């Protein structure tokens, strides 16, 4: 079976007809019953009273088919256990009477998963949580394919977040590896996986995004030191790269302008001094040489 629209008509029109017909039938039945009890109407009055009460009872039964559907919600109809359709339009309707009407919200919903502790692809324990935005697009599947579609979405979301954390590292210097800190790519992958997992329940995943990501407390300090060391190494590499270029430019200018004539030993000494000044993390302390470089 699949989602299909249920039979329905305007509820106000049916309500007016049933009130008029049922009220008239009830009034006629009461009058006929009174005439029959007085003995003036005979068998015809008794039959009219019975017919009036039957019509009035039938009108009451038909009144059970009236239902109200709010904006962004659906009513799933079952007639003695059999699915006969859904009403997705907002309004006041009359449907098949004696049906069970189950309300399914079609509004956009969101929830945040619990903060989960998972090992990433490198084996590092991390804490991760995500927010999921979804809505029901198939009321039949949401009502009958799973026991509780809200609980189903929450469980599948936590499973998808766990799986995502196990296949990606927390951080990576390899451009071919997607890390958990790559927000856009990770969000797209999580949304796609969740959409596949929840399609069975008639759910459309609008967005799924990581809201909390951190190393577990037991390794957080060590990873912080590691990250700081990596940043220091990267900064020093840039400094050395720039210093080498500046030293080369200085030697070329000195040679081109003929300011000094440097042999290999003097050139090496100058390179050493310039690198110390440019690469040092403290101010250089100059030493004045009063003698010869060779003495």
TrEMBL record:
Residues 64-232 form the Band domain. The keyword DNA-binding does not apply. Keywords: Hydrolase, Membrane, Protease, Transmembrane, Transmembrane helix. It comes from Nocardia transvalensis. CDD domains: SPFH_like_u2. It comes from the Bacteria. The chain crosses the membrane at residues 12-36, 42-66. GO terms for molecular function: peptidase activity. Pfam families: Band_7. One of its GO terms (biological process) is proteolysis. This is Regulator of protease activity HflC (Stomatin/prohibitin superfamily). The keyword Transmembrane helix applies. SUPFAM superfamilies: Band 7/SPFH domain. PANTHER family: BAND 7 DOMAIN-CONTAINING PROTEIN, MEMBRANE PROTEIN-RELATED.
């Amino acid at each position: 079976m699949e989602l299909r629209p249920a039979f329905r008509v305007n509820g106000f029109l049916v309500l007016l007809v049933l009130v008029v017909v049922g009220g008239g039938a009830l009034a006629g039945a009461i009058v006929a019953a009174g005439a029959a009890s007085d003995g003036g109407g005979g068998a015809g009055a008794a039959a009219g009273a019975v017919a009036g009460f039957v019509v009035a009872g039938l009108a009451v039964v038909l009144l059970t088919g009236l239902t109200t559907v709010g904006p962004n919600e659906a009513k799933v109809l079952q007639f003695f256990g059999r699915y006969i359709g859904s009403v997705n339009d907002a309004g006041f309707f009359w449907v098949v009477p004696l049906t069970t009407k189950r309300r399914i919200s079609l509004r956009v919903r969101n929830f945040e998963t619990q903060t989960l502790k998972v090992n990433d692809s490198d084996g590092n324990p991390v804490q991760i949580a995500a927010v999921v935005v979804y809505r029901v697009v198939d009321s039949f599947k949401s009502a009958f394919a799973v026991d509780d579609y809200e609980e189903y979405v929450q469980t599948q979301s936590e499973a998808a977040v766990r799986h995502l954390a196990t296949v990606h590292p927390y951080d990576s210097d390899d451009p071919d590896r997607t890390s958990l800190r790559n927000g856009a790519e990770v969000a797209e992958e999580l949304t796609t996986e969740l959409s596949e997992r929840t399609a069975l329940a008639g759910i459309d995943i609008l967005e799924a995004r990581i809201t909390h990501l951190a190393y577990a407390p037991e390794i957080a300090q060590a990873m912080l030191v590691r990250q700081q060391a990596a940043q220091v190494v990267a900064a020093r590499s840039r400094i050395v790269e720039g210093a080498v270029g500046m030293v080369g430019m200085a030697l070329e200018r000195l040679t081109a302008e003929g300011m000094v004539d440097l042999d290999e030993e003097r050139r090496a000494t100058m390179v050493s001094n310039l690198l110390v000044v440019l690469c040092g993390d403290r101010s250089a302390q100059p030493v004045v040489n009063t003698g010869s470089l060779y003495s």
